[in-house]
Amino acid sequence: MTLTLTLTPEIEQYLTQRAEEQGLSTEAYTLQLLIEHIILKQKQTKSVNLLQSWMDEEDAEEQQETGQYLIQALDEDRLSDRQLFPIELKGVSW
Predict the structure, then answer these.
(1) Is residue 81 domain-shared with residue 50, that is, in the same domain?
(2) pTM of this prediction?
(3) CA distance 76 to 25
(4) Do residues 29 and 19 make contact, with C-beta atoms less than 8 angstroms apart?
(5) 81 in the same domain as 51
């Protein structure tokens, strides 16, 4: 597929400079950027879908247990004695 874009002079200059730095043509560099962006978006979408599927499982008890375990693990595995999730702030800040 051939795609024709009208770029601002600033964008064109940016792409040309970055392409030269990497030893690529402007077209090859622009295509590389587009591919990287698409792959990143695909990964983000997969992650969001996975998280949403976990939330949709509707096992509230298991989610509570997992949440409590994560909070405990994060608080225990610290170089500092200060807790990330102090019990007195439960329901206030977390």
Answers:
(1) no
(2) 0.54
(3) 52
(4) yes
(5) no
Number of domains in the chain: 2
Burial of residue 35 (number of CB atoms within 10 Å: 0-12, 13-18, 19+): exposed
Asked if 66 and 92 sit in the same domain, the reply is yes
Tokens of 2: 């051939």
Nearest to 33 by CA among 48, 49, 11: 11
The answer to whether position 1 is within a domain reads no
Q: Residue 76 belongs to what domain range?
A: 58-94
| pLDDT digit string, tens, across residues 49-84 | 888 887 787 777 887 888 888 888 887 777 777 777
Q: Which residues contact 85 (CB under 8 A, 6 or more apart)?
A: 71, 74, 75, 94
